[in-house]
Design brief:
Helix content is 2%, strand content 53%. The protein folds into two domains: 119 residues, Jelly Rolls; 87 residues, no CATH class. The protein has one helix and 16 strands. It is mainly β.
């Protein structure tokens, strides 16, 4: 047994280089009497079934090389073999730019560089090859996606240690954790009714095998709720 002199979370990547950590957090401004994924686009999420190059565009012409908004963005996800892949692309305003890499999963996109505005001026959208499925969204001015969605990479086991959620409108919402193993269907793993906010620790951890899709959903009351939620996990 190895003894460490600092909290385990701080030691990951330093004293335990083979262990990774992930913190996923999302936001959905209007979850009513239906179940939706906690992400900016709203509604449920449609996953790709095979890897493909994606398209990135903005709702503002200022998000363009040489302009005042977002200049470059980085996409993070998994390839067709469920191995991690990242890609950096130059923005071209409202003109869709094709990624260099192919993705099967996309779970985070962030602005790397920006002009004098300091971040993205418009809503940045990432879509599939035929541009009929939105896979990620960066809201104007935020610089990064807010999507409580993640897939366990190939050869890894994820150990979730915490889930959280909140409803800023305090209308009442269920924060629900779902997971889908490869070749199976989504199954609920935890549900917590939230009137304001809640943090749910898992002292024994919830374990998920490689290639498992994980997402946080909200189920609201008749009045729309402004919901945030996410989770943290280690994987090795």
């Amino acid at each position: 047994m190895k003894t460490i002199a600092k909290p385990f979370g701080w030691a990951v990547g330093d004293e335990f280089p083979n262990i990774g950590k992930i913190i996923k957090f999302g936001h959905n401004a209007a979850i009513a009497a239906s179940e939706e994924v906690v992400w900016e686009t709203g509604g449920m999420y449609t996953y790709l079934t095979s890897e493909e190059q994606l398209y990135v565009s903005s709702g503002s012409g200022a998000d363009d090389i040489g302009s005042t908004g977002a200049l470059t963005v980085e996409l993070q996800g998994l390839d067709g073999n469920y191995n991690p892949v990242t890609d950096t692309i130059n923005m071209d305003g409202g003109t869709p730019v094709e990624t260099n890499e192919s993705f099967l999963r996309i779970f985070r996109v962030k602005v790397l560089t920006a002009g004098s505005g300091g971040t993205n001026a418009g809503v940045i959208t990432i879509q599939n090859q035929v541009q009929d499925n939105t896979l990620a969204t960066i809201s104007a001015g935020l610089g990064q996606t807010l999507m409580a969605i993640w897939t366990v990479p190939a050869g890894k086991t994820a150990r979730m240690v915490q889930l959280w959620g909140s409803d800023q409108t305090k209308n009442g919402v269920d924060i629900r954790l779902y997971a889908r193993e490869l070749g199976s269907v989504f199954q609920i793993k935890h549900s917590q009714e939230v009137a304001d906010s809640a943090i749910i620790p898992f002292p024994l951890s919830l374990d998920f095998s490689e290639k498992t899709d994980i997402e946080v959903r909200g189920f609201g009351s008749a009045s729309a709720g402004d919901v945030s939620g996410g989770f943290s996990a280690y994987y090795e």
